Amino acid sequence: MTTVAVLADLPAETDALAGVVESEPFDAEEATRLYTATLRDACAAVERSGGELLVNYRTLDAPEEEAEEAVASAVAPALDDPEDARYEVQVGSTRSARVGNTVTHLLEREEVRSAAVLDPAVALAERRHVDSAAMKLRGAEVVLGPTPGGAVWYAGFTEPVDFADAFAPPSLRTLTERGSGEGLDVEFIESRPLVSDYAGLASAVVSVQSRTIAGRPVPGYTRRAVADLGLDVAATGDELDVHTGADTDRS
Length: 251
Known about the structure:
The chain is an alpha/beta fold. The chain is built from eight helices and nine strands.
């Protein structure tokens, strides 16, 4: 069994989508709604997989008990058994340090067979992706879920690597180099977009719309958030611009 830590923020305080807000497809309140949706779907995917869900949260200057309560309240509607969810605060001054501390603690202190981290800003992550990664971790020491922008939405390990600055861009290449450099086998699962960057948000919106049109499965909270926020895209030259509002024309 893989213990999967979802790296959660307090939705109302998160800066995960700050770059997208600065690009002005939506405001901070709408960003909070979208982040809450992807966080819920990410936790649900892990809970319903064969792995163990650990909600690993940042306090963001809030008292620890208050922060845990806020994160748990945000996540609970998506879980089949909210009372069974495990919550632990993140430790470390940077994202790389926090991930390193979490993974190393799970592998060396708790002696789990494999440990993984999952970015809650990922769109369209499903139970099958989490289970696929767990299967690959039976034969490889490092399993990475890439994003189109060269980051990772999932990173699983059976052995710790050097995590110093490992999650600075481009984290996909850096983590691959760290694993391979230590003689570890590195495997990959499906690419998924992150709504925390503009290109990833555009990709996520198009994917949600396309899968909905085709009648294919779409994580429910993310699908509803895209619809409720009126998120849509329009082509500007060779790029996609993200807009809000039900009256936005598709191109």
